[in-house]
Write a structure and sequence with these properties.
The complex is a heterodimer of chains A (288) and B (430). Chain A has 288 residues and is of the alpha+beta class. Chain A has helices at residues 7-33, 40-48, 61-75, 87-98, 133-139, 155-159, 186-190, 217-223, 233-237, 262-266, 282-287, and strands spanning 108-112, 165-167, 174-176, 196-200, 207-209, 243-246, 249-252, 272-274. In chain B, 50% of the residues are buried. In chain B, the strands form 4 sheets. In chain B, strands 1-14-13-17-15-16 form a 6-stranded mixed sheet. A 4-stranded antiparallel sheet of chain B has the order 2-8-7-4, with no helix packed on it. Chain B contains 14 helices and 17 strands. Classes of the chains: A alpha+beta (288), B alpha/beta (430).
Chain lengths: 288, 430
Amino acid sequence: MSFEIFGPIGMAAALLGGIALLSALLLFLTAKKFHVQVDHRVEDVTAILPGINCGSCGYPGCSGLAQAFVKASESGNLAGLYCPPGGKDTAESVSSYLGLAPEVKEPTVAVLRCGGSILAAPVRLAYDGPPRCSLAHNLSAGESGCPFGCLRLGDCEVSCDYGAISMDKTTGLPVVDDDKCISCGACVKACPRSLFQIRPRGVPGRVWVSCRSLEKGPVAMKTCKVACIACGKCVKICPSDAIIMENNLAYIDPIKCTSCGKCVAVCPTGSILTTLKELPSKEAALES
Amino acid sequence: MKISSQSPVETFPLPTSVVIPLSQHLGAPAKPLVKKGDKVLVGTPIGEPNGFMSAWIHSSVSGTVTKVDDTPGVNGYRIPAVFIDVEGDDWEPTINRHNDLIRDISLTTEEILAKIKLMGIVGLGGATFPAHIKLTLPPGKVADTLILDGVECEPFLTADHRLMLEHTEEILVGAKIMMKVLNVEKCIIGIEANKPDAAAILALKAKIYPGISVQLLEVKYPQGGEKQLIKALLNREVPSGKLPLDVGCIVNNVGTSYAVYQGVQKNKPLFERIMTVTGAHVANPSNFLTRIGTSVTDVLKAAGTDLDQIVKLVNGGPMMGRAASNLSFPVTKGTSGLIVFDKEEAFRRPEKFCIKCSKCIQACPMGLEPYLLEKLGEKEMYEEAEANRIMDCMECGSCQYTCPSSRPILDYIRAAKVQVLRLRRERSGK
């Protein structure tokens, strides 16, 4: 055979080289035939998004949201698409890239709606099971006896991937670090009693009812000193009709609330909390 | 440790007020039929079933309804209840209050079932499953044996033991009624060997009831579980995910049998039950015939309990019962006992790592792998837990009891079961 002139090494090289060329050709043809049309805009938008894949937008990760953005841009409307951790900046850069008006949303933060600290709602029962809220919630109303309040075992702290929630040893309650919170909503899902809510950060501050108890006043007060007792004073004083009283519990609608702080001043139990620096005095609130 | 087995059943004095929960059975809470100011008699219906899986609730006292409101249950969560102030002790005239035994069963199957439902009878072994549903055979299914559970499911409890000694024939007539409804010829009463007196008297009295036999069983926990009892008595195994009826059996507690007798033969609704009060710091461990709705504080006091010494109060048996979160919850149809624990017994031992000793696997009466289910529950891997037959677990607690590392096995399994049920609901919703 004429191949013998290459010698054994040459023959092996020729054979392997031949196979390599053949495979390359096959790959080339396959790539041509089954070419995936990638929209470069999706890739670009994905690059603009934070890339943490938290899922708080409601889509499977950042690329999922990017696809939704691009799809929506074809119909010319980005309404409903928003990246909570990215906030205003991300919304603006995505919309300017797509040449459309951004979905405007106020910056939000996770807010704890329970004031049942160790001091306000003292421990009446010893729980010595595994320190997990989900387990304690299945077993009983909890240490303080309030069936709606914080179990103080820290499932939210574990659920937060951004270190924004820490358990305060003196109160027993979780504390949200506003600067670290990206309002992804992991804590909302983790809390078996739905005590967290994603609310607008508010200008100049936010006001919320820090209680979820549906008990009647006297019953609620038995377990917790800072419970909402549904007295209705806040509803009466609110100038913008932002407070709804339902099932023995007040709720402040963050969209209507103007952060005037009057309800905070009149609440007899102190169950309405705020980040406002200055509050009207009780007298001033009642006068106006 | 059956401290109270020699204490005859005492009728608990009439309380001054009762709180009767509308949710005393498995399934939907009953709909209240009374309002504030209504006068009720003993046995007056105050709640009607709300849906298929629900039961009638009757007043256990005569008096005036003061309110229909929520009350804290055993675990501290609110349950709807009817509050009644007691005035005298007037019974509904339809109830036969004579003690004579009525052996003849005059009603037809349909009439009996309707009556069992109307009398609000639920399974008194612990699960409070509405009895009329259990006794109604689905089309195409045939039963051949009725099994009466007289093993007294858990340590400490003696209510069933006393019932068998004191109301032997009533239980047997109740069994006859259920045999008629189910159209079966055979009834076996399973009794553990630590109650030879109960077995002897039941066997003696059963001679005039053809088809009913008594069988002594080895003493072991959890033999009160229906699948375990069927295996012990008939050597039949209920397959995973199936019901006792799939192997031709229906299992009922002796207490349920007694309630069926009273309901069908005496028109007496289920408004009182026998319960055991025992444990540490209980001066007189007792068995009480208590009206439903009586505060457990009163019951504990009557047994001579030092309330200040209670570190833990368990509602039910020590293995499956749940620790109470307060001392003011009312006695319900499912309250088989109250057990007081002192400081030494009340707390868990410190939790250590799983050493893979497999003691829990040997202990599990359902042949599950508890250590694995615990891990899957902890890691929130509910689909895998379901695939590992977590729903077969009857929460007997043997795994956690036997664990040398004091792992919280059952805690995680219970929580995971709730999640698996949620998954199943979501799936069927789609």
